[in-house]
């Protein structure tokens, strides 16, 4: 194959047919449980098995290698995948991703992403409407919740610091308040912004792992007494460990009283606003100054695809208030909504709106509401199985599609934390299920995120049976 042949459309067509056939076969096998949920290979072994040298000339078969990647990856379409908050993506969304990758138009400026920019604008406007934001709201799509939260908090800093941070720099210690269950990227964002270890102040949570308003008041007063200027409160909707929703409406009252920016980290849980049956968990979200919402979680899009949404869309231009004359005219940035590079960390930004727009158009918005509802129904089925079982313990009643529980065999009086860790390790070795673990107030729990609507109650019963068998067959040994 010559360098020119690498761009041969016929070769691409042939390879595409082979790859699509292989991926479709994977969907059939994963959905039918004919492959493991996880290919549990030790990292050192994988390092040894995968060639580390690249040839000087052509010779490798890219389709063969890609299908090997599929075969040796965690199968998120498998009904036994109940692990991390990674969606079971819509297969047709992969076609949109393929198209964007081939045409390769970055989106800093309209000239390099014309239809893509308008698609993104329509998707963002729809999401703002779902949250209850009114006229004048807006935002952008970016690559993941961590970058999305940082972007929103940069805007909060500029809006509430009391001076122009971009021009003058930080003039006094700044801080934000977030629950002790907030995602670690919140603390990371505070440190990136130069606020140090005390920049993200953890507010204690209640028995259901939700931010307590009384504790919020005390934490705020303590921060002020210590000489910090608090600029924002971050509400977790929902938390990663337990799926708990902070009380947004009450937090909004607190923020209004103290003139603080309210940011909602809805990376996982903002999708609950799609359904009338679940949107009460987000009561008050329309009062937030900013919201982060991952489309690659409960909206079943491929990773990464995150919306950063602002109740006042003008605020989205303040996070990155810089000039770049080779890209942008020296005009009011708001008049150039179509040059999204003014509002993102990225310059070469992938066309995330294409995938979102095409899936919303193809399936309809009601599909995504039903998806959220199905996952919650599935979670409540697992909850009922755990509560009804004498040998399992529930950590907290679930508010999202996340459930934490642990196995407590009758008469077992040894190290329960060690037992959970060993159970999980052996379950992964078996490969039929993939679940994770989390530590809540010093105790280790097994944790599931039910992301696949094809998972059934039989699969959930099978998971509990496998956990029981794993413990019984090893005699509770902790090796």
From TrEMBL:
Belongs to the group II decarboxylase family. GO terms for molecular function: diaminobutyrate decarboxylase activity; pyridoxal phosphate binding. This is L-2,4-diaminobutyrate decarboxylase. Its cofactor is pyridoxal 5'-phosphate. Its EC number is 4.1.1.86. GO terms for cellular component: cytoplasm. The keyword Lyase applies. GO terms for biological process: amino acid metabolic process; carboxylic acid metabolic process. Keywords: Decarboxylase, Lyase, Pyridoxal phosphate. PANTHER family: CYSTEINE SULFINIC ACID DECARBOXYLASE, GLUTAMATE DECARBOXYLASE-RELATED. It comes from Engelhardtia mirabilis. The modification N6-(pyridoxal phosphate)lysine is found at residue 297. The keyword Lyase applies. It comes from the Bacteria. The gene is ddc.
């Amino acid at each position: 194959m010559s360098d020119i042949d690498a761009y041969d459309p016929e070769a691409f067509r042939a390879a595409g047919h082979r790859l699509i056939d292989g991926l479709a076969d994977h969907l059939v096998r994963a959905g039918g449980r004919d492959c493991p949920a996880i290919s549990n290979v030790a990292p050192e072994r994988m390092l040894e098995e995968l060639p580390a040298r690249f040839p000087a000339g052509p010779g490798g078969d890219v389709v063969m290698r890609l299908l090997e990647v599929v075969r040796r990856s965690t199968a998120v379409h498998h009904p036994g995948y109940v692990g991390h908050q990674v969606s079971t993506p819509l297969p047709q969304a992969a076609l949109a991703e393929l198209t964007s990758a081939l045409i390769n138009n970055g989106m800093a400026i309209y000239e390099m992403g014309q239809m893509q920019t308008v698609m993104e604008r329509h998707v963002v406007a729809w999401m703002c409407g779902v949250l209850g934001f009114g006229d004048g709201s807006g935002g952008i799509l970016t690559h993941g919740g961590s970058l999305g939260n940082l972007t929103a908090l940069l805007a909060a800093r500029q809006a509430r610091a009391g001076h122009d941070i971009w021009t003058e720099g930080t003039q006094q210690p700044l801080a934000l308040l977030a629950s002790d269950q907030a995602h670690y990227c919140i603390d990371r964002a505070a440190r990136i912004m130069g606020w140090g270890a005390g920049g993200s102040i953890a507010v204690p949570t209640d028995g259901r792992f939700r931010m307590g308003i009384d504790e919020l008041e005390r934490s705020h007063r303590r921060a002020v007494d210590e000489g910090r200027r608090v600029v924002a409160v971050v509400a977790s909707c929902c938390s990663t460990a337990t799926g708990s929703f902070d009380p947004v409406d009450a937090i909004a009252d607190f923020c209004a009283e103290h003139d603080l920016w309210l940011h909602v980290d809805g990376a996982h849980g903002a999708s609950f606003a799609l359904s009338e049956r679940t949107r009460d968990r987000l009561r008050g979200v329309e009062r937030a100054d900013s919201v982060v919402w991952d489309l690659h979680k409960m909206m079943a899009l491929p990773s990464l695809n995150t919306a950063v949404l602002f109740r006042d869309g003008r605020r989205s231009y303040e996070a990155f208030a810089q000039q770049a004359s080779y890209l942008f005219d020296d005009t009011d940035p708001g008049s150039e909504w179509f040059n999204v590079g003014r509002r993102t960390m990225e310059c070469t930004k992938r066309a995330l709106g294409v995938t979102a727009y095409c899936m919303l158009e193809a399936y309809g918005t009601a599909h995504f509401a039903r998806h959220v509802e199905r996952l919650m129904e599935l979670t409540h089925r697992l909850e009922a199985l755990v509560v009804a079982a004498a040998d399992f313990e529930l950590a907290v009643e679930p508010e999202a599609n996340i459930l934490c529980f642990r196995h407590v065999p009758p008469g077992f009086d040894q190290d329960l934390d060690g037992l959970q860790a060993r159970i999980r390790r052996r379950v992964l070795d078996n490969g039929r299920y993939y679940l994770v673990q989390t530590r809540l107030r010093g105790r280790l729990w097994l944790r599931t995120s039910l992301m696949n609507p094809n998972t059934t109650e039989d699969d959930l019963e099978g998971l509990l049976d496998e956990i029981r068998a794993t413990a019984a067959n090893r005699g509770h040994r902790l090796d």
